[in-house]
Design brief:
The complex is a heterodimer of chains A (306) and B (288). Helices cover 35% and strands 27% of the residues of chain A. Chain A has eleven helices and 15 strands. In chain A, the strands form three sheets. In chain A, strands 7-8-9-4-10-11 form a six-stranded mixed β-sheet, with helices on both faces. In chain A, strands 1, 2, 3, 5 and 6 form a five-stranded antiparallel β-sheet that branches. A four-stranded antiparallel β-sheet of chain A has the order 13-14-12-15, with no helix packed on it. In chain A, helix 3 crosses helix 4. The longest helix of chain A is centred in the middle third of the chain and has 17 residues, at 164-180. The relative contact order of chain A is 0.14. Chain B has one domain. In chain B, strands 1-2 form a two-stranded parallel ribbon. Chain B is globular. Classes of the chains: A alpha/beta (306), B mainly alpha (288).
Chain lengths: 306, 288
Amino acid sequence: MNANLLETVCLTKIYGHQRAVDNLSLHVSKGSIYGLIGRNGAGKTTFMKMIAGLAKPTSGEIRLFGADAEDSVGQNRIGALIEAPGIYGDMTAFDNMRLKAVATGVYHRGKINELLALVGLSDTGRKKAGQFSLGMKQRLGIAMSLIGTPDLLILDEPINGLDPVGVIEIRELIEKLSREYEMTVIISSHILDELARIATHYGIINEGRLVRELSKEELLDQCAECVEIKSDAVKEVCLALEEMGYAAYEVCDKETLRVPDCCDRVGEINMALARRGILLRGISVRQESLEEFFVNLTGGAGENHE
Amino acid sequence: MSSITNLIKMEMARLVRSKTAYVTLLFVAIFAALLFAMSASFGEQSQNNTLEKDNAMYAEISDEHAMEIKSSGVGFVVVDFTRNMDITFERLIHSFLSSGVFLVFCGIFAANTVCNKYKSGFQKNLGIYSHKKWQMVAAENASLLIFVAVEMILVILILLFLSVCYFDRFRLGSAVSIIRYLGMQILLYDVFSVLIMCLAELIRGKVIAITVTCLLSMGIGNVVLSKIDDLLKLKNFSVLDHCLIYHVKMLPVTYNAKVWGTAGAVAIFFFLLYNGISIAAVSQRDMA
Protein backbone atom coordinates (compact mmCIF):
# COMPACT_ATOMS: atom_id res chain seq x y z
CA MET A 1 0.00 0.00 0.00
CA ASN A 2 1.32 3.41 -0.96
CA ALA A 3 2.35 5.26 2.17
CA ASN A 4 2.38 8.54 0.31
CA LEU A 5 -0.74 10.59 0.94
CA LEU A 6 0.20 13.05 -1.78
CA GLU A 7 2.33 12.60 -4.86
CA THR A 8 2.88 15.00 -7.69
CA VAL A 9 4.37 13.98 -10.99
CA CYS A 10 5.96 16.65 -13.17
CA LEU A 11 3.49 19.23 -11.94
CA THR A 12 3.73 22.45 -13.91
CA LYS A 13 1.92 25.77 -13.81
CA ILE A 14 2.56 28.45 -16.38
CA TYR A 15 1.20 31.98 -16.16
CA GLY A 16 1.81 33.66 -19.48
CA HIS A 17 5.55 33.26 -19.99
CA GLN A 18 6.27 32.59 -16.34
CA ARG A 19 6.77 29.02 -15.17
CA ALA A 20 5.61 29.40 -11.60
CA VAL A 21 5.94 25.66 -10.94
CA ASP A 22 8.20 23.63 -13.17
CA ASN A 23 8.04 19.83 -13.36
CA LEU A 24 7.70 19.46 -9.64
CA SER A 25 7.53 15.90 -8.37
CA LEU A 26 7.32 15.42 -4.67
CA HIS A 27 5.97 12.99 -2.12
CA VAL A 28 4.27 13.60 1.16
CA SER A 29 3.93 10.59 3.38
CA LYS A 30 0.94 10.00 5.58
CA GLY A 31 1.19 11.51 9.04
CA SER A 32 4.16 13.70 8.25
CA ILE A 33 4.58 17.42 8.70
CA TYR A 34 6.03 18.50 5.41
CA GLY A 35 7.81 21.84 5.39
CA LEU A 36 7.93 23.65 2.07
CA ILE A 37 10.85 26.02 1.93
CA GLY A 38 11.59 28.57 -0.72
CA ARG A 39 12.15 32.23 -1.37
CA ASN A 40 9.36 34.64 -2.22
CA GLY A 41 8.09 33.76 -5.66
CA ALA A 42 9.66 30.30 -5.62
CA GLY A 43 6.32 28.66 -6.37
CA LYS A 44 5.29 27.38 -2.94
CA THR A 45 1.91 29.10 -2.86
CA THR A 46 1.14 28.22 -6.47
CA PHE A 47 1.96 24.60 -5.71
CA MET A 48 -0.29 24.64 -2.66
CA LYS A 49 -3.11 26.19 -4.66
CA MET A 50 -2.92 23.37 -7.19
CA ILE A 51 -3.04 20.71 -4.48
CA ALA A 52 -5.99 22.46 -2.87
CA GLY A 53 -7.87 22.64 -6.18
CA LEU A 54 -7.74 26.43 -6.37
CA ALA A 55 -5.54 26.51 -9.47
CA LYS A 56 -5.57 24.21 -12.44
CA PRO A 57 -2.19 22.66 -13.32
CA THR A 58 -0.91 23.37 -16.80
CA SER A 59 0.44 19.84 -16.93
CA GLY A 60 1.42 17.01 -14.64
CA GLU A 61 -0.42 14.82 -12.25
CA ILE A 62 -1.55 15.04 -8.66
CA ARG A 63 -2.33 11.87 -6.78
CA LEU A 64 -4.19 12.34 -3.52
CA PHE A 65 -4.99 9.54 -1.10
CA GLY A 66 -3.82 7.04 -3.67
CA ALA A 67 -6.16 8.24 -6.38
CA ASP A 68 -6.19 10.92 -9.05
CA ALA A 69 -6.94 14.38 -7.72
CA GLU A 70 -9.92 14.61 -10.07
CA ASP A 71 -11.68 12.31 -7.62
CA SER A 72 -13.92 14.63 -5.62
CA VAL A 73 -13.80 12.42 -2.54
CA GLY A 74 -10.14 13.22 -2.16
CA GLN A 75 -10.83 16.93 -2.45
CA ASN A 76 -13.25 16.70 0.47
CA ARG A 77 -10.50 15.49 2.76
CA ILE A 78 -8.36 18.60 2.44
CA GLY A 79 -8.32 21.71 4.59
CA ALA A 80 -6.31 24.68 3.46
CA LEU A 81 -5.25 28.16 4.43
CA ILE A 82 -3.70 29.74 1.35
CA GLU A 83 -2.33 33.28 1.51
CA ALA A 84 -4.75 35.55 3.38
CA PRO A 85 -7.70 33.86 5.11
CA GLY A 86 -10.88 33.91 3.04
CA ILE A 87 -13.42 35.41 5.42
CA TYR A 88 -16.39 37.73 5.15
CA GLY A 89 -15.55 40.88 7.05
CA ASP A 90 -19.20 41.68 7.79
CA MET A 91 -19.79 38.38 9.57
CA THR A 92 -18.68 37.11 12.93
CA ALA A 93 -16.10 34.35 13.38
CA PHE A 94 -18.86 31.89 14.19
CA ASP A 95 -20.90 32.85 11.09
CA ASN A 96 -17.89 32.47 8.82
CA MET A 97 -17.20 29.04 10.28
CA ARG A 98 -20.86 28.16 10.00
CA LEU A 99 -20.96 29.03 6.30
CA LYS A 100 -18.06 26.77 5.54
CA ALA A 101 -19.41 24.01 7.75
CA VAL A 102 -22.78 24.17 5.95
CA ALA A 103 -21.02 24.10 2.57
CA THR A 104 -19.17 20.94 3.56
CA GLY A 105 -22.22 19.34 5.16
CA VAL A 106 -20.65 19.04 8.61
CA TYR A 107 -22.39 21.82 10.50
CA HIS A 108 -22.41 21.24 14.23
CA ARG A 109 -22.55 24.20 16.58
CA GLY A 110 -20.54 22.48 19.29
CA LYS A 111 -17.77 21.51 16.91
CA ILE A 112 -17.47 25.08 15.62
CA ASN A 113 -17.18 26.42 19.15
CA GLU A 114 -14.57 23.76 19.87
CA LEU A 115 -12.48 24.80 16.89
CA LEU A 116 -12.75 28.47 17.79
CA ALA A 117 -11.58 27.65 21.31
CA LEU A 118 -8.71 25.61 19.88
CA VAL A 119 -7.35 28.65 18.06
CA GLY A 120 -8.11 31.09 20.86
CA LEU A 121 -11.09 32.87 19.32
CA SER A 122 -13.86 31.72 21.64
CA ASP A 123 -14.36 35.22 23.10
CA THR A 124 -14.96 37.20 19.92
CA GLY A 125 -18.74 37.18 20.35
CA ARG A 126 -20.55 39.47 17.90
CA LYS A 127 -17.40 41.20 16.72
CA LYS A 128 -17.20 41.23 12.94
CA ALA A 129 -14.26 39.47 11.35
CA GLY A 130 -13.37 42.66 9.46
CA GLN A 131 -12.47 44.26 12.78
CA PHE A 132 -10.10 41.47 13.79
CA SER A 133 -6.38 42.02 14.01
CA LEU A 134 -4.15 40.27 11.48
CA GLY A 135 -3.32 37.57 13.99
CA MET A 136 -6.99 36.95 14.80
CA LYS A 137 -7.86 36.68 11.12
CA GLN A 138 -5.04 34.21 10.68
CA ARG A 139 -6.33 32.13 13.60
CA LEU A 140 -9.82 32.18 12.11
CA GLY A 141 -8.39 31.01 8.80
CA ILE A 142 -6.67 28.12 10.54
CA ALA A 143 -9.89 27.22 12.35
CA MET A 144 -11.80 27.25 9.06
CA SER A 145 -9.25 24.97 7.47
CA LEU A 146 -9.88 22.45 10.28
CA ILE A 147 -13.62 22.18 9.61
CA GLY A 148 -14.50 18.64 8.70
CA THR A 149 -11.35 17.26 10.38
CA PRO A 150 -9.39 16.96 7.13
CA ASP A 151 -6.82 14.27 6.52
CA LEU A 152 -4.53 16.69 4.71
CA LEU A 153 -3.98 20.19 6.01
CA ILE A 154 -2.30 22.77 3.80
CA LEU A 155 -1.05 25.85 5.60
CA ASP A 156 0.61 28.66 3.68
CA GLU A 157 2.61 30.72 6.16
CA PRO A 158 0.13 30.20 9.02
CA ILE A 159 2.14 32.11 11.60
CA ASN A 160 2.14 35.39 9.67
CA GLY A 161 1.00 38.19 11.92
CA LEU A 162 1.00 36.10 15.08
CA ASP A 163 2.65 37.27 18.27
CA PRO A 164 5.35 35.04 19.84
CA VAL A 165 2.81 33.34 22.10
CA GLY A 166 0.54 32.76 19.12
CA VAL A 167 3.41 31.24 17.15
CA ILE A 168 4.03 28.76 19.95
CA GLU A 169 0.32 27.97 20.20
CA ILE A 170 0.01 27.26 16.52
CA ARG A 171 3.15 25.17 16.54
CA GLU A 172 1.78 23.09 19.39
CA LEU A 173 -1.57 22.83 17.62
CA ILE A 174 0.04 21.49 14.45
CA GLU A 175 2.05 18.96 16.45
CA LYS A 176 -1.10 17.89 18.27
CA LEU A 177 -3.06 17.50 15.05
CA SER A 178 -0.31 15.37 13.59
CA ARG A 179 0.12 13.30 16.72
CA GLU A 180 -3.46 12.79 17.90
CA TYR A 181 -5.47 13.04 14.69
CA GLU A 182 -2.79 11.58 12.39
CA MET A 183 -3.28 14.59 10.18
CA THR A 184 -0.79 15.12 7.40
CA VAL A 185 0.32 18.73 7.23
CA ILE A 186 2.01 20.65 4.46
CA ILE A 187 3.28 23.91 5.81
CA SER A 188 5.29 26.73 4.33
CA SER A 189 6.99 29.42 6.30
CA HIS A 190 9.71 32.01 5.94
CA ILE A 191 10.61 31.56 9.59
CA LEU A 192 12.81 28.54 9.04
CA ASP A 193 13.69 28.13 12.69
CA GLU A 194 10.02 27.56 13.44
CA LEU A 195 9.73 25.12 10.58
CA ALA A 196 12.80 23.27 11.79
CA ARG A 197 11.09 22.69 15.13
CA ILE A 198 8.07 20.86 13.78
CA ALA A 199 8.64 19.56 10.26
CA THR A 200 9.44 15.90 9.77
CA HIS A 201 10.18 16.28 6.08
CA TYR A 202 11.31 19.14 3.89
CA GLY A 203 10.90 20.14 0.30
CA ILE A 204 13.10 22.95 -0.92
CA ILE A 205 11.74 24.81 -3.91
CA ASN A 206 13.62 27.30 -6.00
CA GLU A 207 12.39 28.98 -9.20
CA GLY A 208 9.45 26.61 -9.36
CA ARG A 209 11.57 23.45 -9.18
CA LEU A 210 12.10 21.01 -6.36
CA VAL A 211 15.75 21.35 -5.45
CA ARG A 212 15.84 18.80 -2.64
CA GLU A 213 13.44 16.61 -0.77
CA LEU A 214 14.61 15.10 2.46
CA SER A 215 13.55 13.91 5.87
CA LYS A 216 14.56 15.57 9.11
CA GLU A 217 17.12 12.86 9.76
CA GLU A 218 18.64 13.34 6.34
CA LEU A 219 18.73 17.08 6.90
CA LEU A 220 20.58 16.65 10.17
CA ASP A 221 23.13 14.50 8.37
CA GLN A 222 23.41 17.00 5.56
CA CYS A 223 23.79 20.11 7.71
CA ALA A 224 27.49 20.36 8.08
CA GLU A 225 29.07 20.69 11.46
CA CYS A 226 31.90 23.11 11.93
CA VAL A 227 34.13 24.53 14.62
CA GLU A 228 33.28 28.11 15.48
CA ILE A 229 36.08 30.23 16.95
CA LYS A 230 35.50 33.61 18.55
CA SER A 231 38.51 35.82 19.16
CA ASP A 232 39.54 39.47 19.06
CA ALA A 233 42.72 38.43 17.22
CA VAL A 234 41.09 37.11 14.07
CA LYS A 235 44.18 37.72 11.87
CA GLU A 236 46.40 35.70 14.15
CA VAL A 237 43.85 32.88 14.28
CA CYS A 238 43.73 32.82 10.46
CA LEU A 239 47.51 32.56 10.20
CA ALA A 240 47.57 29.83 12.81
CA LEU A 241 44.88 27.83 11.06
CA GLU A 242 46.72 28.06 7.75
CA GLU A 243 49.90 26.85 9.37
CA MET A 244 47.93 23.93 10.83
CA GLY A 245 46.57 23.08 7.38
CA TYR A 246 43.00 24.27 7.89
CA ALA A 247 42.84 26.64 4.99
CA ALA A 248 39.11 26.25 4.26
CA TYR A 249 38.00 28.50 7.08
CA GLU A 250 35.38 31.20 6.72
CA VAL A 251 35.58 34.60 8.41
CA CYS A 252 32.05 35.46 9.47
CA ASP A 253 32.70 38.80 11.12
CA LYS A 254 35.50 40.67 12.89
CA GLU A 255 35.55 38.21 15.77
CA THR A 256 34.16 34.94 14.41
CA LEU A 257 35.57 32.24 12.14
CA ARG A 258 34.19 28.87 11.15
CA VAL A 259 36.26 25.88 10.19
CA PRO A 260 34.53 22.93 8.49
CA ASP A 261 35.38 19.24 8.65
CA CYS A 262 37.39 19.30 11.83
CA CYS A 263 34.89 18.81 14.60
CA ASP A 264 36.74 15.79 15.90
CA ARG A 265 39.88 17.89 16.34
CA VAL A 266 38.50 20.86 18.20
CA GLY A 267 40.65 20.07 21.21
CA GLU A 268 43.76 19.95 19.08
CA ILE A 269 42.94 23.32 17.48
CA ASN A 270 42.27 24.85 20.90
CA MET A 271 45.63 23.64 22.20
CA ALA A 272 47.49 24.83 19.12
CA LEU A 273 46.02 28.31 19.35
CA ALA A 274 46.76 28.49 23.08
CA ARG A 275 50.42 27.55 22.45
CA ARG A 276 50.66 30.41 20.02
CA GLY A 277 49.39 32.75 22.76
CA ILE A 278 46.18 33.55 20.96
CA LEU A 279 43.40 34.41 23.38
CA LEU A 280 39.99 33.01 22.47
CA ARG A 281 36.62 34.24 23.60
CA GLY A 282 35.03 30.95 22.64
CA ILE A 283 35.41 27.75 20.65
CA SER A 284 32.57 25.34 19.95
CA VAL A 285 31.16 22.79 17.56
CA ARG A 286 28.00 24.02 15.81
CA GLN A 287 25.74 22.61 13.19
CA GLU A 288 24.61 24.49 10.13
CA SER A 289 21.09 25.77 10.65
CA LEU A 290 18.21 25.07 8.28
CA GLU A 291 18.46 28.67 7.19
CA GLU A 292 22.12 28.36 6.32
CA PHE A 293 21.54 25.05 4.59
CA PHE A 294 18.74 26.58 2.51
CA VAL A 295 20.77 29.66 1.60
CA ASN A 296 23.75 27.51 0.58
CA LEU A 297 21.52 25.23 -1.46
CA THR A 298 19.66 27.95 -3.31
CA GLY A 299 22.64 30.14 -3.95
CA GLY A 300 22.48 32.91 -1.39
CA ALA A 301 20.31 36.00 -0.81
CA GLY A 302 18.10 37.70 -3.32
CA GLU A 303 14.42 37.65 -4.15
CA ASN A 304 12.58 35.99 -6.99
CA HIS A 305 9.87 38.14 -8.45
CA GLU A 306 6.85 36.76 -10.30
CA MET B 1 -25.89 15.08 1.39
CA SER B 2 -24.76 16.09 -2.08
CA SER B 3 -22.34 18.97 -2.40
CA ILE B 4 -24.71 21.04 -4.54
CA THR B 5 -27.36 20.87 -1.83
CA ASN B 6 -24.80 21.96 0.73
CA LEU B 7 -23.68 24.84 -1.45
CA ILE B 8 -27.25 26.01 -1.93
CA LYS B 9 -27.78 25.85 1.82
CA MET B 10 -24.61 27.87 2.28
CA GLU B 11 -25.78 30.52 -0.18
CA MET B 12 -29.11 30.72 1.63
CA ALA B 13 -27.29 31.13 4.94
CA ARG B 14 -25.13 33.85 3.38
CA LEU B 15 -28.24 35.57 2.01
CA VAL B 16 -29.78 35.67 5.46
CA ARG B 17 -26.60 36.73 7.26
CA SER B 18 -25.20 39.32 4.89
CA LYS B 19 -26.01 43.01 4.99
CA THR B 20 -26.20 43.27 1.21
CA ALA B 21 -29.61 41.66 0.90
CA TYR B 22 -31.22 43.66 3.70
CA VAL B 23 -29.80 47.01 2.61
CA THR B 24 -30.82 46.41 -1.00
CA LEU B 25 -34.34 45.36 0.00
CA LEU B 26 -34.63 48.43 2.22
CA PHE B 27 -33.84 50.62 -0.76
CA VAL B 28 -36.33 48.65 -2.86
CA ALA B 29 -39.04 49.37 -0.30
CA ILE B 30 -38.16 53.06 -0.08
CA PHE B 31 -37.99 53.37 -3.82
CA ALA B 32 -41.32 51.62 -4.36
CA ALA B 33 -43.02 53.96 -1.92
CA LEU B 34 -41.27 56.99 -3.43
CA LEU B 35 -42.26 56.02 -6.94
CA PHE B 36 -45.86 55.58 -5.88
CA ALA B 37 -45.83 58.97 -4.19
CA MET B 38 -44.22 60.63 -7.22
CA SER B 39 -46.77 59.08 -9.55
CA ALA B 40 -49.65 60.22 -7.35
CA SER B 41 -48.17 63.68 -6.99
CA PHE B 42 -47.61 64.01 -10.72
CA GLY B 43 -51.16 62.87 -11.35
CA GLU B 44 -52.61 65.35 -8.92
CA GLN B 45 -50.59 68.16 -10.43
CA SER B 46 -51.66 67.18 -13.94
CA GLN B 47 -55.27 67.13 -12.85
CA ASN B 48 -54.86 70.58 -11.34
CA ASN B 49 -53.25 71.80 -14.57
CA THR B 50 -50.23 73.17 -12.76
CA LEU B 51 -47.67 71.62 -15.14
CA GLU B 52 -48.64 72.81 -18.61
CA LYS B 53 -45.50 71.73 -20.37
CA ASP B 54 -45.32 68.31 -18.76
CA ASN B 55 -48.97 67.68 -19.39
CA ALA B 56 -48.31 67.88 -23.09
CA MET B 57 -46.20 64.74 -22.81
CA TYR B 58 -49.20 62.79 -21.65
CA ALA B 59 -51.89 64.53 -23.65
CA GLU B 60 -52.20 61.61 -26.01
CA ILE B 61 -52.94 59.14 -23.24
CA SER B 62 -56.59 58.37 -22.93
CA ASP B 63 -58.19 57.39 -19.66
CA GLU B 64 -58.47 53.88 -20.98
CA HIS B 65 -54.74 53.57 -21.35
CA ALA B 66 -53.82 55.77 -18.47
CA MET B 67 -51.66 53.14 -16.83
CA GLU B 68 -49.65 51.97 -19.85
CA ILE B 69 -45.95 52.59 -19.63
CA LYS B 70 -44.05 54.57 -22.23
CA SER B 71 -40.98 52.41 -22.32
CA SER B 72 -39.50 52.99 -25.73
CA GLY B 73 -37.18 55.69 -24.54
CA VAL B 74 -34.39 55.90 -22.04
CA GLY B 75 -35.18 56.30 -18.38
CA PHE B 76 -37.95 55.29 -16.08
CA VAL B 77 -41.42 56.59 -16.77
CA VAL B 78 -44.41 55.70 -14.67
CA VAL B 79 -47.56 57.38 -15.74
CA ASP B 80 -49.32 59.46 -13.16
CA PHE B 81 -52.57 58.46 -11.53
CA THR B 82 -55.07 60.17 -9.33
CA ARG B 83 -57.05 59.21 -6.28
CA ASN B 84 -60.39 59.04 -8.01
CA MET B 85 -59.24 56.85 -10.90
CA ASP B 86 -60.95 53.55 -11.47
CA ILE B 87 -57.88 51.42 -11.19
CA THR B 88 -57.06 47.77 -10.64
CA PHE B 89 -54.10 46.42 -8.72
CA GLU B 90 -53.35 44.26 -11.73
CA ARG B 91 -52.65 47.30 -13.87
CA LEU B 92 -50.71 49.05 -11.11
CA ILE B 93 -48.33 46.09 -10.76
CA HIS B 94 -47.90 46.04 -14.51
CA SER B 95 -46.91 49.72 -14.50
CA PHE B 96 -44.34 49.37 -11.77
CA LEU B 97 -42.74 46.08 -12.70
CA SER B 98 -42.52 46.80 -16.39
CA SER B 99 -40.87 50.14 -15.74
CA GLY B 100 -37.64 48.24 -15.14
CA VAL B 101 -36.61 50.36 -12.17
CA PHE B 102 -36.46 47.37 -9.87
CA LEU B 103 -34.05 45.59 -12.18
CA VAL B 104 -31.38 47.89 -10.80
CA PHE B 105 -31.66 46.37 -7.36
CA CYS B 106 -31.50 42.82 -8.68
CA GLY B 107 -28.36 43.71 -10.60
CA ILE B 108 -26.78 45.44 -7.62
CA PHE B 109 -27.46 42.41 -5.43
CA ALA B 110 -26.02 40.02 -8.04
CA ALA B 111 -22.88 42.14 -8.55
CA ASN B 112 -22.33 42.53 -4.80
CA THR B 113 -22.85 38.82 -4.10
CA VAL B 114 -20.35 37.66 -6.69
CA CYS B 115 -17.74 40.37 -6.20
CA ASN B 116 -17.83 40.16 -2.39
CA LYS B 117 -17.12 36.46 -2.66
CA TYR B 118 -13.93 37.15 -4.63
CA LYS B 119 -12.92 40.25 -2.69
CA SER B 120 -13.19 38.45 0.63
CA GLY B 121 -11.42 35.38 -0.71
CA PHE B 122 -14.13 33.15 0.73
CA GLN B 123 -14.33 31.24 -2.54
CA LYS B 124 -10.94 29.74 -1.60
CA ASN B 125 -12.81 27.76 1.04
CA LEU B 126 -15.37 26.57 -1.50
CA GLY B 127 -12.91 25.65 -4.20
CA ILE B 128 -11.57 22.91 -2.05
CA TYR B 129 -14.90 21.17 -1.74
CA SER B 130 -16.44 21.81 -5.11
CA HIS B 131 -14.40 20.16 -7.76
CA LYS B 132 -17.42 20.33 -10.00
CA LYS B 133 -17.47 24.09 -10.03
CA TRP B 134 -20.75 24.37 -11.87
CA GLN B 135 -22.34 23.60 -8.54
CA MET B 136 -21.14 26.94 -7.18
CA VAL B 137 -22.80 28.74 -10.08
CA ALA B 138 -25.98 26.74 -9.52
CA ALA B 139 -25.97 27.67 -5.83
CA GLU B 140 -25.58 31.35 -6.70
CA ASN B 141 -28.53 31.03 -9.07
CA ALA B 142 -30.65 29.77 -6.21
CA SER B 143 -29.65 32.76 -4.09
CA LEU B 144 -30.46 35.21 -6.90
CA LEU B 145 -33.86 33.62 -7.52
CA ILE B 146 -34.79 33.88 -3.85
CA PHE B 147 -33.75 37.52 -3.76
CA VAL B 148 -35.72 38.38 -6.90
CA ALA B 149 -38.82 36.64 -5.57
CA VAL B 150 -38.53 38.39 -2.21
CA GLU B 151 -38.01 41.74 -3.93
CA MET B 152 -41.10 41.23 -6.08
CA ILE B 153 -43.24 40.21 -3.13
CA LEU B 154 -42.00 43.21 -1.16
CA VAL B 155 -42.86 45.59 -3.99
CA ILE B 156 -46.31 43.98 -4.33
CA LEU B 157 -47.02 44.28 -0.63
CA ILE B 158 -45.95 47.91 -0.49
CA LEU B 159 -48.01 48.78 -3.56
CA LEU B 160 -50.99 46.93 -2.13
CA PHE B 161 -50.78 48.79 1.14
CA LEU B 162 -50.35 52.19 -0.48
CA SER B 163 -53.10 51.51 -3.01
CA VAL B 164 -55.60 50.60 -0.33
CA CYS B 165 -54.70 53.79 1.54
CA TYR B 166 -54.64 56.13 -1.46
CA PHE B 167 -57.27 55.15 -4.03
CA ASP B 168 -60.96 55.86 -3.46
CA ARG B 169 -61.99 52.98 -5.63
CA PHE B 170 -59.46 50.20 -5.55
CA ARG B 171 -60.02 46.81 -7.14
CA LEU B 172 -57.71 43.82 -7.10
CA GLY B 173 -58.44 42.65 -10.62
CA SER B 174 -57.75 39.08 -11.69
CA ALA B 175 -55.68 37.24 -9.09
CA VAL B 176 -54.76 34.61 -11.68
CA SER B 177 -53.45 37.28 -14.04
CA ILE B 178 -51.47 38.87 -11.24
CA ILE B 179 -49.84 35.61 -10.19
CA ARG B 180 -49.11 34.60 -13.77
CA TYR B 181 -47.66 37.99 -14.61
CA LEU B 182 -45.64 38.03 -11.43
CA GLY B 183 -44.26 34.58 -12.20
CA MET B 184 -43.10 35.61 -15.67
CA GLN B 185 -41.57 38.84 -14.42
CA ILE B 186 -39.74 36.94 -11.67
CA LEU B 187 -38.29 34.73 -14.41
CA LEU B 188 -37.27 37.73 -16.53
CA TYR B 189 -35.83 39.62 -13.57
CA ASP B 190 -33.98 36.51 -12.47
CA VAL B 191 -32.41 36.09 -15.89
CA PHE B 192 -31.30 39.73 -15.71
CA SER B 193 -29.68 38.96 -12.36
CA VAL B 194 -27.97 35.95 -13.93
CA LEU B 195 -26.66 38.24 -16.69
CA ILE B 196 -25.11 40.55 -14.10
CA MET B 197 -23.78 37.53 -12.17
CA CYS B 198 -22.16 36.32 -15.40
CA LEU B 199 -20.62 39.73 -16.03
CA ALA B 200 -19.32 39.91 -12.47
CA GLU B 201 -17.82 36.40 -12.76
CA LEU B 202 -16.05 37.39 -15.98
CA ILE B 203 -14.66 40.74 -14.98
CA ARG B 204 -14.74 40.43 -11.16
CA GLY B 205 -15.34 44.15 -11.01
CA LYS B 206 -18.25 45.53 -8.99
CA VAL B 207 -18.20 49.05 -10.43
CA ILE B 208 -18.48 47.97 -14.04
CA ALA B 209 -21.13 45.38 -13.23
CA ILE B 210 -23.29 47.92 -11.39
CA THR B 211 -22.78 50.55 -14.09
CA VAL B 212 -23.93 48.08 -16.74
CA THR B 213 -26.90 47.21 -14.50
CA CYS B 214 -27.98 50.84 -14.37
CA LEU B 215 -27.54 51.40 -18.09
CA LEU B 216 -29.46 48.27 -19.05
CA SER B 217 -32.26 49.02 -16.59
CA MET B 218 -32.62 52.48 -18.08
CA GLY B 219 -33.15 50.94 -21.49
CA ILE B 220 -29.86 51.87 -23.15
CA GLY B 221 -29.71 48.31 -24.48
CA ASN B 222 -33.13 48.72 -26.08
CA VAL B 223 -32.03 51.90 -27.82
CA VAL B 224 -28.86 50.28 -29.13
CA LEU B 225 -30.67 47.18 -30.35
CA SER B 226 -33.36 49.21 -32.08
CA LYS B 227 -30.60 51.07 -33.91
CA ILE B 228 -29.10 47.72 -34.87
CA ASP B 229 -32.49 46.68 -36.23
CA ASP B 230 -32.59 49.88 -38.27
CA LEU B 231 -29.16 49.14 -39.67
CA LEU B 232 -29.73 45.45 -40.41
CA LYS B 233 -33.26 45.90 -41.77
CA LEU B 234 -33.92 42.16 -41.46
CA LYS B 235 -37.25 40.96 -42.73
CA ASN B 236 -39.45 39.13 -40.23
CA PHE B 237 -36.85 39.36 -37.50
CA SER B 238 -36.15 42.01 -34.93
CA VAL B 239 -33.16 41.86 -32.63
CA LEU B 240 -35.01 44.07 -30.16
CA ASP B 241 -37.91 41.60 -29.95
CA HIS B 242 -35.46 39.03 -28.62
CA CYS B 243 -33.94 41.23 -25.96
CA LEU B 244 -34.53 40.47 -22.32
CA ILE B 245 -35.12 44.04 -21.10
CA TYR B 246 -37.54 44.65 -23.95
CA HIS B 247 -39.71 41.81 -22.68
CA VAL B 248 -39.51 43.05 -19.10
CA LYS B 249 -40.84 46.41 -20.23
CA MET B 250 -43.32 45.27 -22.86
CA LEU B 251 -44.83 42.13 -21.37
CA PRO B 252 -48.57 42.66 -21.14
CA VAL B 253 -50.42 41.64 -18.02
CA THR B 254 -53.09 39.89 -20.10
CA TYR B 255 -52.01 36.53 -21.41
CA ASN B 256 -51.03 36.36 -25.06
CA ALA B 257 -49.62 33.03 -26.20
CA LYS B 258 -47.26 34.46 -28.83
CA VAL B 259 -45.90 37.34 -26.75
CA TRP B 260 -45.61 35.32 -23.58
CA GLY B 261 -44.17 32.36 -25.45
CA THR B 262 -41.46 34.55 -26.99
CA ALA B 263 -40.71 36.14 -23.61
CA GLY B 264 -40.40 32.70 -21.99
CA ALA B 265 -38.18 31.37 -24.77
CA VAL B 266 -35.94 34.43 -24.63
CA ALA B 267 -35.67 34.09 -20.85
CA ILE B 268 -34.74 30.40 -21.01
CA PHE B 269 -32.26 30.95 -23.82
CA PHE B 270 -30.42 33.71 -22.02
CA PHE B 271 -30.62 31.84 -18.70
CA LEU B 272 -28.78 28.91 -20.26
CA LEU B 273 -26.37 31.15 -22.18
CA TYR B 274 -25.31 33.28 -19.22
CA ASN B 275 -25.01 30.30 -16.89
CA GLY B 276 -22.97 28.46 -19.49
CA ILE B 277 -20.57 31.38 -19.75
CA SER B 278 -20.36 31.67 -15.95
CA ILE B 279 -19.64 27.95 -15.53
CA ALA B 280 -16.97 28.08 -18.23
CA ALA B 281 -15.35 31.10 -16.58
CA VAL B 282 -15.40 29.57 -13.09
CA SER B 283 -14.15 26.19 -14.31
CA GLN B 284 -11.29 27.52 -16.39
CA ARG B 285 -10.03 30.27 -14.15
CA ASP B 286 -8.10 29.85 -10.96
CA MET B 287 -10.14 30.38 -7.83
CA ALA B 288 -7.41 32.41 -6.14
